Every structure is written in C-alpha cells, then in structure tokens.
Amino acid sequence: MSLKELAAHLGLSQTTVSRVVNQSPGSRRISPETQQRVLAAADELNYTPNALARGLRNKHSQTVSVIVPEISDGYSTTVLSGIEDALLIAGYFYFVVSHRHRPELLRKYPRLLLSRAVEGIIAVDTPLEEDLPIPVVSVSGHLRHKSVVNIELDHTLAAHYALEHLRSLGHREIAIIKGQRFSSDTQSRWQAIQRVARKLGITLHPKLVVELEGTGIGSEPGRAATVKLLGRQVQFTAIFAFNDVSAIGAIQALRDANLSVPRQVSVVGFDDIASAATNAPALTTVRQPLQEMGRVAAMTLLQLLQGESAGTLQNPIRVLPSFVQRNSTASVLQTARAQEPILFHETRG
Amino acid sequence: MSLKELAAHLGLSQTTVSRVVNQSPGSRRISPETQQRVLAAADELNYTPNALARGLRNKHSQTVSVIVPEISDGYSTTVLSGIEDALLIAGYFYFVVSHRHRPELLRKYPRLLLSRAVEGIIAVDTPLEEDLPIPVVSVSGHLRHKSVVNIELDHTLAAHYALEHLRSLGHREIAIIKGQRFSSDTQSRWQAIQRVARKLGITLHPKLVVELEGTGIGSEPGRAATVKLLGRQVQFTAIFAFNDVSAIGAIQALRDANLSVPRQVSVVGFDDIASAATNAPALTTVRQPLQEMGRVAAMTLLQLLQGESAGTLQNPIRVLPSFVQRNSTASVLQTARAQEPILFHETRG
DNA sequence: CTGAAAGCGCTTACAG
DNA sequence: CTGAAAGCGCTTACAG
Predict the structure, then answer these.
(1) pTM of the full structure
(2) A117 to chain B: which residues are within 8 Å by CB?
(3) Among A237, A228, A125, A245, which Cα is nearest to A186's?
(4) Which of B131, B149, B221, B250 is least surrounded, with the fewest CB atoms within 10 Å of its CB?
C-alpha cells in the first residue's frame, strides 16, 4: 500500500494525503473532515510509509549504528541496553556491528555504514581511525577527533576506590593486570592507577604488572596473565584486574595454583557485569554505570543530530564509577600469608 | 558524491557508471578502458552508493531485523553473535530491537520494521502474533505460521540428559522450576520433562513444581521461585531449573536457607551461558548450542530471501543439546540428607 | 559499446 | 483548502 494507491483510493492527491499522515505544517489548513477520512483510510488499509523513500527524500534515514568489539560480552550489551531505550523512543533504529578487533573490519565498517546512510555512530570501546562526516559519540573510546564527543569514566576515582580499598585492608604488594593493547581504556586506566598509587604511597613493582594478551574472549586472557604473574616468583597479596572477566580468569588461575581467594590473595575486578555478583567468590569490583553510559551516549548523539555542535557540548562527558565490595577481597592480616609466607614459585608446573 | 556527479566528472552517463560500479550484467559489453577509468575515479573520489536510493529502486534493503526479549542477557547475545557472522558476510545489516515482554512493543515492532523495509526477521525466544508478509526465522519461538521456519532444540534429549543424570546420582525427589508463562520454550520444555520423567520412572510431585514469575531479569526470578519452593515444606534433593540464570538464583536462595549445593541439594541449569562455568559452584547444565542456532537461523533466513520457500525447508530445524557436568550436582548418597533428614521448613523466615 | 528516460515512494516549494 | 510537478539517487528496459 503506497501513498499513491491510498490517494487514488481516496480521490485525493498524494500531497494532501502525505500532509495529513505526517501531520506536517501544511496539514494545518486541511479541512478536519478530509483529515478524518485520510486517517481512517490509512488505518484501515494498513498504510505504512516506505522509510527508504522518505529517507531518500528527506536526506535522513532515522538510523544510526552502534559499533562494539564483541556483541556477546556483558560489557557491550549492557551499554547497548542503555542505548536502545533512548534511541527507539526518538524513532531511531540502529545497526549493530562488531569488529572483534580485526583491523580490516575497523577500517571498512565506517564506510559501509556511511553508504547505509546512518546519521550517526556510537562507538563502544572502539578506536576509530578516520574523522567521519557524521556525528560520533564514543563510549570509553578516548577518541580525539573534532567531531567526536567522548563519554568517559573518571578513571582516577576508579583507581582510588580500588587501591584505597586494598591499602586499607593492609595490602602493599599489589599486582596489576593491564588491559590488552588494543583496548581503548587500557592507557588511561593504567595512567590513573600509577598516579593514584603514587599519591597513596603504594609502590607498583614492574614485575607485578602484567597485561592481557590476545583477542580471546571471556576469562581466558585473565587466566593466562595470572599464570604468567605467578611464574615470576614475586610476592603479592592482591590483584587489581583490568575488568571482571579477567578477574574471574585470575581467580581460576589462583585456584589452579592452590591459592585461596580471598584468604591468600584478594582480587578486585572492574565493570560490575552481571556475573560479578554470582561468581565464586562474588567479585569486589569497581562499577561502571554501563547502562547509564549507553543512555547518555544515545541522548548526546540525538542532540548532535538535532544540530547541536560537538564543540558546544561538554567534552568529554564524565561519568562516575562506584565501588562494590563483595567477597573476593579480605584483610591481609587474616591471610595465611600473615602466618607463613607462601612461596608462589612452588606452584609452578 | 553521487552517481550523477561522478558521471559528470567522467563525461559519461549515469547508466554506464552504474553498470560498472555494480559489475552488473550490462557491464560485460563496456570497454575495459572505460571500466578502468570509472573504477579509478570512483575510488579516488570516494564514491559510495546511496543504499536508500538503491533499496528504493531494487525493492530490497539488504537489511533484516533481529528481535529479542532483552539485549543485555547472555542468551540473546550469544545467539546474536552467531547471527552476525552469517549476515554480514552476505552483505546484510540488521536492526536489533528488544521487546522486554511488553505486549505493546510486541505488537508494534513488526509494523515498524516492515515500514523500515526489512526483508526478513529473526525472532529469538519471541512470540510473534501475526503472520508477516516477509520471511521469519524463529529461534526457540515455536511459532506456527506458514511463513515461519523454526529452529528448535531437541527438548526430549535435553530433559533426558538432566533427569537421567540426576536419577543416576540417586535423586528421586526432583523439583522443577518451569519458565515464565511468556517464554516460548516453557511449554515444550515442560512437556518433554513430563514425558521423560514418566519413561525414567521419576515421579514429579506437583508441590515440587514452581514457575518463574515476572519480567525481572537476571537471577532474581529463580531466587524467588526457590524461596516459594522451600516454603512448601516438601522434601527434595535436586532442582532442575528452567535456565542458568534461574539456577544461579536458586543457588542463592538455597544458600540463604543454609542449604549447601551440591552437598544437600543438586542443581541443574539450562543454556550454558558464559557465567555458568564461573558461578559458585560451577553449574552442571544442559548446553544449548546458542551460537550455532544463531548461525543456522541467519543462513536459513538468507536462503528464504534467495527465494527458497519455507515449505520446502525442513521445519522445524532441530539442533541438539549437550550435557555439561560441573560442580552443582552430586550423588544423593553423599549428601547430609542420607544421614539425617533436612527439615526444609526449619529454614523459613 | 553507450545513453536517454522512466520510475521506485516519498515530500515540499510553488501555484491557485 | 487542495494539487501538479520536481527531485532525492539509484537501476534497467529499451533504443541506437
């Protein structure tokens, strides 16, 4: 059922019918009776305007895209659920694409999306190389292009929560699991940790710093990093992990090495994904307000599409972490280690 | 950069340029030199065809939609990751919408999507009321419309895995947590459980059957159902939960009631979402090949879009579960209960 | 080997 | 108060 057919059916012009179904300005002067007739017929004949034609004519597609590293992880999807709320209310639909850290996908997706006439892009934890001709909002992406508005967590506060918590529990030998090189948050989080550690008088021994490697998903990279850490034979009583999945992996590795969490080693995660609360043990973690970050990102993009300039908005837009204390951390005084030193190298295969 | 501009730049007609950039049949007879010139210019001037115009003209948008109950849960997103692989390779993009079990969204989304000219829909665990004029593939949706191809798990085998496992461990008093009324899998899974229980000689006491209630996400509904179960003061040594998140909730409720899993109560989940393995205790569960189900759904939809008729395809397409034994189940002989009866009503508030 | 022209389904400036 | 016509950016049947 096209507009033309509907108009023919009513004995009216497409112009008139278009005006009333869209309640466009021009519809103000159309007689109420005609309006009723049109609306009734549109409803009865189940007329739905063709969004392709409308988009072509109006030069806007009411479509945006969300680009994420991986659709199946808890991080991206929590952000997505926040994005969806704001977007669908505004009448926008969105394409989801995931690049899985593959450089060729990162390169070609922006162009592909442009050819799909998306009006804007939300990039989640994704480094976008080129400066795009459409508005971009970046969540945890730390992009420095003019047209990009960044939504960023306050990493200093985040680091403060975690390190101060561990320090107050008596931990001094704290291992850090840094993020993968390709993860946008890795640098800023690591810098914040160094800054805060210095302020708190905590020394970060280089041998107690490992980084996640590879594009593996789930807890595997965290497990591998922790195995490597244990292999270095340097004493530690706590681990601050880059994110919850790697904290979960770290706990697996510690358990495999017969180290009890939190009795012998405390572990702090990051993100507070859904499974953090149900993990064994339940994860003490720095919570990112992921859903809120998604909602803010979507609302910001909507503003940009409304014509707001990226320059006039606050940029970056900061969001605040919170701290969730559960069962993966404990006082170092209560650990076995306080009684008898644990020789980590004993645990090596 | 439009086709018209590109053509003007080259001193050629739109027809010719269109033919070569699309390598359409007509391009066979265009001189190699012209082809080279066109391709070079297109590349240099960064020409990207307007997908809206192309879709309007060709009557296909190269777009489909995936409709899920909830974007932020592990189930939908694992299916989504399987869908994405197959779809993007074929040059299709997809809109994601989530209905969150809200009837008005379930009613209006199909129309909205139709007006967006989507060529097909993949419905994940979602009941679609009307028969749509485009191909629909349903994952765990159990839809019975002519135009719908269903991807369905073999629920009989799934029930067999779980119940036979529990029976072999000595469990006789097995509680069942059924799914929410609105969940498409609820009926078929429950029927399979009854059938298999009968075959295995297991009696399902009506008082040991509870159902998940409400649209709450995460583990909360499973926890609430288990609290209700405990309140009924009927003896049981095992729970077969509708899915992993409710199994996780059940374990929380049992722990709150001072019942140890698996020492006093065994719990079997369903799905094998990512957090099943890292839960405390790690979940014994019936695994659905969710990613494969997504991939099969996408490939099937692609076939239908290629003109294959739903009638000629196998329907439903069955996929097989597998069984993953972890630490949430144990032999009933080793339980405390074997020595001394546990009075569940003692645990009530 | 190449092109002029029609038409996909809309919206809107212009006219009456 | 209503409509005829142009045009958004494409593709393709038809013509030469």
Answers:
(1) 0.88
(2) 50-52
(3) A125
(4) B131
